[in-house]
Amino acid sequence: SPIAEASIVERDNKRYRGKQVTKLFGTLKTKEKWKNIKNLNNGMASVVAKSGYAIQTTANINSNGKSKDYSFKYKSYQVTGYKKQNDKKRKIFAKSRHKHFHDGLSWLNYVRGLSLHQNHKFDFEVFNLGRFYRVSGVVNSIEQVMTPLGEKESYRISLKIATKHRGKTKSVDSTVWISTDSQRIPVQMMMSTKLGLAKVLINKIEKY
Predict the structure, then answer these.
(1) What string of H, E and C letters represents the secondary structure of the chain?
(2) 185-205, pLDDT tens digit by residue?
């Protein structure tokens, strides 16, 4: 059964420093019966430019009562920001790449906007909570998925997410189901964790 539930709110046609942007808000919370094993209460907010790439990201990651706050700003191929854990001193980030990259929320909108079809392949880079990830994806099949939003015909998309840590490349596998209708709702995700295979259901998605 799902160990966590997620919600996504998308607000279009907002203004940020005089520019038209989309604002994304996401939450991820552990379901009640799993809280004694891993109690997550995470929130993230992104300001996304018309290009589809994030301008700014803020996040609060709360795991088993330990809280971390992140704030990042993006310009061209660069990211600057900080991480603050509990009341400790901020850790400053300043990193760059040779091309554009997504943040922890905008990548999902990027995939939703692709011309998805069976066997379609794609790849992109993500900067999330201080680290870069290379994501490779392929559309495996079309399936019916039962969700709190009702039954949805969905693309089953396999993702391989890789990052370098202390000189070694580590990767995890994940699967996301995105509805085939015009809304392209990300109805379900499955990912490998230290606790095993974890299923996340989208219990709410709003756009206004």
Answers:
(1) CCCEEEEEEEEEEEEECCEEEEEEEEEEEECHHHCCCCCEEEEEEEEECCCCCEEEEEEEEEECCEEEEEEEEEECCEEEEEEEECCCCCEEEEEECCCCCECCCHHHHHHHCCCCCCCCEEEEEEEECCEEEEEEEEEEEEEEEEECCEEEEEEEEEEEEEEEECCEEEEEEEEEEEECCCCCCEEEEEEEECCEEEEEEEEEEEEC
(2) 888 888 766 555 667 766 556
